[in-house]
Amino acid sequence: MSVKALVSRGRDTPLAVEDVELPEFGPGRVRVRIRAAGVCHSDLSMINGTLAPPFPLVLGHEASGVVVEVGNGVTHVAPGDDVVLNWSPACRQCWYCTHGEPHLCEKAVGPSRPGRSIVYCTDTRPCDSAVSLARDVDVLIHESTYDASLSAEAMARDHSTATEAATIARDANAGRLILTHISPRYESADPLVAEARATFPMTEAASDFACFDVPRPL
Length: 218
Description:
Blueprint: E1 2-8, E2 16-21, E3 30-38, H1 41-47, E4 57-58, E5 62-70, E6 82-86, H2 95-98, H3 106-109, E7 118-121, H4 128-133, E8 139-143, H5 151-156, H6 162-171, E9 177-180, H7 190-197, E10 203-205
Parallel strand pairs: 7-8, 8-9, 9-10
Antiparallel strand pairs: 1-2, 1-4, 3-5, 5-6
Helix pairs in contact: 6-7
């Protein structure tokens, strides 16, 4: 069976309505006549390069329609039923689904796995609480308003130097330090980064629209 679909054949290429051949119908399958389909931000992310899907692809993974045919073994819907389609429906049976959190469905998103931890400290003097908060964190984002030569001013204004930020990262055993809240007196953050790296080598500086890759723990 052939149907019309909105197709993308590559990143940033023109979209086109094309004839698409449906897979063979059989047991366990449901055929739905689509009445409406939404092209959402996930679709945009796939065609503009934010995500990296295989091409070609059909846009509109969330739809509604009417069941026209069901295969052997299908009992939960019947021809004539109004239905909503979702690319990753909740199972309604796992622990998360039965405790009111279907958006975390184990069958939809997979089993739980370690995430990445980030701590943000700004407009602050160095303190023990910052070290405790950032203990073993993947990324510490910490203010570095001044360099060490202006430590007295940093103290008077309740800010931190690059060395002080790096010391917190080192003492907390952070995986990475990103300096932020840098005084506009500096034309470049490079001197502050160099200063911090003398204490904590895994240091970088934030900037407008900067992106940092933080690998997921194994």
